Structure formats: C-alpha cells, structure tokens
Amino acid sequence: MIKLDERDLKLLSVLQAEGRITKNDLAKRINLSSTACWERLKRLETHGVIEGYGARVSASVFGPRTTIIMQAELDSHRSPDFIRFEKTIEQISEIVECWAVGGGVDYFLKFVCRDIDSYQRLVDRMLDRNIGLKRYYTFIVTKTVKSTASPLASLEPGQHSN
User: Fold this and answer.
1) Residue 45, φ and ψ in degrees, nearest 5
2) pTM
C-alpha cells in the first residue's frame, strides 16, 4: 500500500498529460527539486502506481478502422471458465480493452478492427476455439465523444491508496 499526497497526484496528472516532459521541467511544475522529484517518480514506479510509459498513436494513420464494443456472456461461471476466457482474450491483439462486469453481463470488450467483416471473422474464430462464449452483442462505435485519462486531479490526497 502506498499513500498518495497532493504532490504525487500533481506529478501523475502532469505525466498523464505530458508524458515526454523532462525531469527538470516536471520538478518545476510540482515545485520540487529535481532530486526530490526523481525520488518520488521512482517510488511511484516501484509501487506500481506508474505502470509504464507510451505514446498515443492515431490508428487512423493506418487507414480505415472500426471500433466495436462487445457485450459477452459465458456458458459457465466457474473460476476455470473465467480464467480460460481471459487468457484467450489477452492473446487477441484486436481486443484493446476488456472489463469484467457485474449485473447480468460477464464482460465488455473493445475491439479495433479494419472493418466489420474482419471483426466478424475474428468472432467466428473465437467461437470455434470454444472459449466459453455463450452469447454476445455487438455495438458499432460511430463516434468517439470523449476519451481521457483517469481524473487524478480530482482525487483527494490521503483518501486513496494503491
């Protein structure tokens, strides 16, 4: 467990918005010395608060693509069935996000595919693999209205831990 203070949250918020910021500029933005900022950064990395660094790449530069949300239900609700399904999902690169949910549905999955036909062929392969998929519903994303990082700036210091 790690407690996050106001400076930790500020540091994380700056990194989410400006991942390529220099360590010196980051230190200035959160009003710390470079050494103190570096120590905080390493502590957050060590405790798994910062999971990694990367670039947001526009998928549109690779040509047309379709984003699809799938609502999925499994045949059985035993632990090995969930594990088998999740391990398979992890191996499919077109599935970019997957959430296990409650409330009568088992999972929501986000696919990014070239087109609807390639999505359906992928689903057919999933069904052929017998991963326990009982029923699925497909929702085609027509427009991204909002896509942002977690709202760290609105978290109260001391109230949340990892």
Assistant:
1) -70, -45
2) 0.77
